[in-house]
Design brief:
- The complex is a heterodimer of chains A (about 500) and B (about 60).
- Chain A is about 75% helix and about 0% strand.
- Chain A is mostly helical and about 500 residues long.
- Chain A has a single domain, classed as Sodium/glucose cotransporter.
- The model of chain A has no long low-confidence stretch (mean pLDDT about 85).
- Chain B has one domain.
- Classes of the chains: A mainly alpha (about 500), B mainly alpha (about 60).
- Chains A and B meet through helix 5, helix 10, helix 11, helix 13 and helix 14 of A and helix 1 and helix 2 of B.
Chain lengths: ~500, ~60
Amino acid sequence: MSDQIEWVALSVFVFFFALVTVMGFFAARWKSGPATEQHLDEWGLGGRQFGTWITWFLVGGDFYTAYTVIAVPALVYAVGAYGFFALPYTIVVYPFVFAVMPLLWKVAHANGHVTAADVVQGTYHSRGLELAVALTGIVATMPYIALQLIGMGVVIKAMGLTGELPIIAAFIVLALYTYSSGLRAPALIAFVKDIMIYIVVLVAVVLVPWKLGGYGAVFAAAGDAFAAKGGATGLTLKPAQMLPYASLALGSALAAFMYPHTLTGIFASKSADTIRKNAILLPAYTLLLGLIALLGYMAYAAHIKVDTPNDVVPALFKALFPSWFAGFAFSAIAIGALVPAAVMSIGAANLFTRNVWKSYVNPDISHAGEAAVAKIASLVVKVGALAFILFLPTQYALDLQLLGGLWILQTFPSLVFGLFTRWFRAEALLLGWAVGIGWGSWTAWSSGLKPLATINIEGVSYVFYVGLGALILNIVVAAVATLVVGLISPRAVATARS
Amino acid sequence: MWVLLLLPFVGLLWVPFFNFAEPSLFGFPFFYWYQLAWVPITALLIWLVYRSRTPDEAQ
């Protein structure tokens, strides 16, 4: 890629960035009621009043991140069909959201819970389990924020800007308006970001195949390239890729709404019905994601050559779009990084405030004090993510994000099972969480930080997503331990003690 | 009605069922248009369950 600064693209980029910055600061006054009292519900959940459309833009803008727009086509470009697991993943997640998240919302709403760890503490009265869920959430979110910075860095580089100053500047702006406006800032900016992304993708999926000779030609070019490349690539899956594909899709779907940033969107919505309607409407973004993924194949038809797969999308846009529209597309991706980065830092800050600071440092903290602590925590989280990108190799962020996915999935039993049954014991769930994280991390680590584990049963080896394997182990351990704890201390005693 | 919510899991996670190039549609191999088709189908299934809930479940 050339290092020449693309002035037209850059001007468009700067315009949109300035626009959302102003919006970010003004968002503090948006939909703020007469009660201007400082409260974590206001800063951290936007006042718990977001209706169907705001939630749709917020969760859509937050779940389908900038990194997705860069990384999914990059993976599809590199390996073909296997990279499409993101599509079944972001489809099967919605029946789950529809069935489970309204129940979670009701519990949170009735008890004033702000975080997943609040819900767990409210259900099981176990400080240990609360801390486990809170720390898992914070640790899993940090590398995710770092990935958003990587996504932003890719498009800034494509416009010819080098060095780390542009990213630092963008991040300081983000940190300041998140500090002052809280969740209202990303919620308002999400409108702009999502509409921009929709425009870019619709133009791309119509214009690009038209320039390249239709979708048949796009798939044919990609198919030829994979045939020449060989290995585990192709337009359909190799038999050995089927179980990894399905288990990655299912495991990722179960993990998706365990993250603090997605749960923040759930807790901030106005009603359980808001969430149900969103489970029906959010798949629209999945259609978009499927089309974005195809950009990886379009790159072959356009004869794009890149050093790293992550450059595929910017290189394709630069090659096929006029400069001003490339600038528009790059702004959409960069702004697309700001929304999830803001929500993630708010989600992590809420966890720190409610489940670490309030539980261990200052139990008598006021509502205003909570909001103040959370604001500072959001700054610390973002500075941490920035330092991560500036001082450590990029690969660390990718590896940690992978591990983060398998870690956050281990909070599933603690958070979800309690909505349906009180049978499981807190000690048992904590043990299951620890075993799941331990086995999962060890397995991923020993296979060179690959997300896949292999087991041999009667001479046949099965390869599957390590996070899903760890979750199954987690549940089995929690169930067995619940039985054992039940024998040692019958439930009546345990209930009286809590 | 709630059993409808399981259909996307079956349809999308049983990979051998759709891991083919043919029949293609508008240039899209089967593997791709089949999975993309599940997006509106899933939204429709969830909507059907949403509509069929009894009033005491609804709030």
